[in-house]
Amino acid sequence: MINRLISPEVPAFGPHLLSVVDLSPEVLTGILDTAESFLEVGHQSVKKVPVLRGKTLLNLFYESSTRTRSSFEIAAKRLSADVINISTTQSSVTKGESLIDTVRTIEALGADGVVIRHPSSGAPAFVSSRVGCHVINGGDGCHQHPTQALLDLFTIRRKLGRIGGLTVAIIGDILHSRVARSNITTLSRMGARVRLVAPPTLLPRGIEDWPVEIFHSLEKGIEGCDVVMALRLQLERAAGGFIPSVAEYARLYGLNAPLLERVAPGALVMHPGPVNRGIEISGEEEFTESSAILSQVEFGVSVRMAVLYLLMGGGPEEVLAGGAVPDKGGKE
User: Fold this and answer.
1) CA 106/CA 111 separation, integer angstroms
2) How far is the C-alpha of 184 from the C-alpha of 138, rounded, in Å?
């Protein structure tokens, strides 16, 4: 059975995905709707569709990653693309190769798309200006992580049925978090109310100009929230120097079952991963029904399939062979 993959009304974006700043609510909704269409692929006996057959995706990661890199690899393979993974610890970067030389190598390899994670903000934009293929930002410094924000939107919409009108608390290391920056933009753009809950030392300068409410008390900050999103304390980016101690941070800003009695009924608990157990979250076994952390991982594949398809595919006239396409949107 042949089904139309996505509606022709999905707005165009691209040729790269470097940031969520320029994504309108219509584009965001189009990406989420496309991800809905791909969700069913993961439940088929043969988890593949041929829409990117003959294309090659290159994963170029200058920082460690399990979820993002694996998710993009699985997404690309489910779309029938070829995937090349380059870990900089096992590449010529260890011999002193510059980013521009690596970029030229990418160009010579003939990749159709590249996912890049880099510790320096702006590195994916730099690469996009020097290659002829599609570039996707897999996380750059403390700047942006667009596909994480997209999969978080998707998870909220699947679990709660909507995004607009919800109250979302983002908790912890806002200062160093590219996830927080991307989520603040997308959540507020889709009509959610965003609260930031953090010690003053872990908030960026100029935060008063962002479309958020600020709380320094965890108890008050999560009161009545529909979603609570804990962030990883990024010790590798010197977050430890902004708090008295990790133990003190865990005591004041760590989520646990008693605290979650303050949230709205049916609220979600989210985390981009990896979780520092006992610091950002403890006693998760007591609120497993509220936890959407593994759903974020599962839905991330469908969202990244949608991004790869919309950037590298043939457009909305492509078709999906085999299996019914689920309805767009809606509660899980």
Assistant:
1) 6
2) 17
In the 8-state DSSP scheme, what is residue 282? -
> Tens digit of pLDDT for each residue in 92-111?
565 567 888 888 888 888 99
Look at residues 212, 214, 250, 247 and name the one whose alpha carbon lies nearest to residue 230: 250
Long-range contacts of 71-74 (CB under 8 A, 24+ apart): 71/297, 71/300, 71/301, 71/304, 72/115, 72/136, 72/138, 72/304, 72/308, 74/301
Residue type, 98: S
One-letter amino acid of 305: M
Interaxial angle between packed helices 293-312 and 146-160, expressed in degrees from 0 to 180 and rounded to the nearest 10: 120
The 3-state secondary structure of 155-213, one letter per residue: HHHHHHCCCCCCEEEEECCCCCCHHHHHHHHHHHHCCCEEEEECCHHHCCCCHHHCCCE
pTM over 0.85: yes
CA distance 221 to 213: 9
With beta carbons less than 8 A apart as the criterion, state whether 61 and 226 touch.
no
Q: What is the DSSP string of 82-107?
A: EEEEEEGGGSGGGGT--HHHHHHHHH
pLDDT digits (tens, 9 = 90+) for 227-281: 999 999 987 766 668 888 999 999 999 999 999 999 999 999 999 999 998 999 9
Contact 72, 304 (CB under 8 A): yes
- Measuring CA to CA, which residue among 76, 40, 59, 9 is closest to residue 309? 76
26's enclosing H/E stretch is helix 25-39
- The architecture in CATH of the region 146-295 reads 3-Layer(aba) Sandwich (3.40)
- Range list for CATH 3.40.50.1370 in the chain: 2-144+300-321, 146-295
319 vs 207: CA distance, rounded Å: 44
User: CA angle, corner 10, sides to 6 and 14, nearest 5?
Assistant: 110
Which CATH number does 2-144+300-321 carry? 3.40.50.1370
